[in-house]
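Hi C.,

You asked whether I'd gotten around to modeling the 89-residue construct. I have! Everything is below, sequence then structure, no commentary in between.
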Amino acid sequence: MRHATTEMTCQELVELITEYLDGTLPEPDRSRFDAHVRTCSGCEAYIEQIRMTIRLLGKLSEESISPEAQRDLLATFRTWKANGAEHGL
C-alpha cells in the first residue's frame, strides 16, 4: 500500500497502471485509482489507450513484424531501459 489516505496523482496512476490492469493492485490503492479516474479525463483516456494497445499487440505475432522493425524495437527498449536506470526509474 502506498498512500492510503491521500488522493492519487496522475504520475502515481501511470506508475500503477500495470498492477491495476493485471488485477494485482491492493484494494486501498485500487479505490484511490478508481476515484482518480472518475475525476480525471486525461487519465481515463490514458487507461483506454493502454487497453487498446494491449488488445492490438495481442494480435501481433513475431512473424508479422519485419526484421528491421524488430531490430528498431529492441534498440528502443534497450535505450529506454538504459535511460531509466540512469534516472532511477
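If it helps when you're writing up: The helical segments are 10-22, 27-39, 41-57, 67-86.

Thanks,
B.
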